């Protein structure tokens, strides 16, 4: 009998929270640096939370571990979700008084009015009207307060239903259902599906020593054929057939190439996995409105250097990381202007700036 070794044995056995806190470069960090440039350097690891990210994480969790959904999310009825201004005010009250008052009704009205004055909430309203406009959403205060204390994310019932619809579409679609079958891998089976394993790898070149971390949505390992496929699930605001535009906009080439390199480097050090080859990276894409999941393949996942696709130039992830690493090792006095911009009396060339900034982007 042939005995296979699980790829799980090569991953880092830590929680997602521990992974997020790990001091290492990752796709989001490099992508945010490319988007924000020099001015973004001090904020690349700031927490980023948007409705689209929250929705994507919901679908990811349903695929990878649906039984854990209620441990991660708290649900609120749509009618109890306040408008942006009222939500901001309620969030502030939960920040200030959440530890002392579980219920909105228990907060002294004088405290609420003082907070409204401080935030500038509905300045033209009378105090009683202000209080009444908040009291209508007391359920939100109580749920967001509880969610914070239990380390959960609060989402609406309609968001949950939309996530379930995406989940069902992925499992029912001809093109994607085989990706998300239950993992039946055992020591004598040749196919292994694993979700959101964490991998870490060190990189040394040109005087840089950088640690990278990756957490792919799905790996499909064929132990008989000795192949590995890296797959990422994207809940996209673009229609599924428009995904190449999203690929460019969100710098997904960085993600695909970095995932491959980190996992390849880890496998290369293992006697069992060192001869495994990688199949082209794939993206499983679904739009919450159209629910027509498609598969997109990125054949250049293992290419080095700058990639050119049409008029778009895509920098190598390692080149981006080296540039960022240079900035991160500068002192505050050294990091005044971007690399390549001179503070000397001789000045700077406008033509050369355009060659770098515009040429690199549209070559």
Furnish the topology, listing elements before pairings.
Blueprint (H helix, E strand, L loop, with lengths): L15 H6 L5 H10 L14 H15 L3 H4 E4 L7 H14 L11 H11 L7 H9 L2 H12 L3 E4 H16 L18 E5 L3 E7 L2 E7 L3 E5 L4 E9 L7 H7 L2 H17 L8 E2 L2 E6 L7 E5 L8 E3 L2 E3 L2 H12 L21 H13 L1
Parallel strand pairs: 1-2, 7-8, 7-9
Antiparallel strand pairs: 3-6, 4-5, 6-7, 9-10, 11-12
Describe the overall structure.
- The protein is of the alpha/beta class.
- Helix content is 40%, strand content 17%.
- The chain has helices spanning 16-21, 27-36, 51-65, 69-72, 84-97, 109-119, 127-135, 138-149, 157-172, 243-249, 252-268, 317-328, 350-362, and strands at residues 73-76, 153-156, 191-195, 199-205, 208-214, 218-222, 227-235, 277-278, 281-286, 294-298, 307-309, 312-314.
- The chain is globular and about 70 Å long.
- The N and C termini lie far apart (54 Å).
Q: Characteristics of this structure?
A:
6-stranded mixed beta sheet, single chain, 17% strand, 12 strands, two-stranded parallel sheet, globular, alpha/beta
